[in-house]
Amino acid sequence: AQTVTQSQPEMSVQEAETVTLSCTYDTSESDYYLFWYKQPPSRQMILVIRQEAYKQQNATENRFSVNFQKAAKSFSLKISDSQLGDAAMYFCAYRSGEDSNYQLIWGAGTKLIIKP
Amino acid sequence: KAGVTQTPRYLIKTRGQQVTLSCSPISGHRSVSWYQQTPGQGLQFLFEYFSETQRNKGNFPGRFSGRQFSNSRSEMNVSTLELGDSALYLCASSLGHLRNTEAFFGQGTRLTVV
Question: Which residue segment(s) compose the domain that A62 sits in?
Answer without folding.
Answer: 3-115
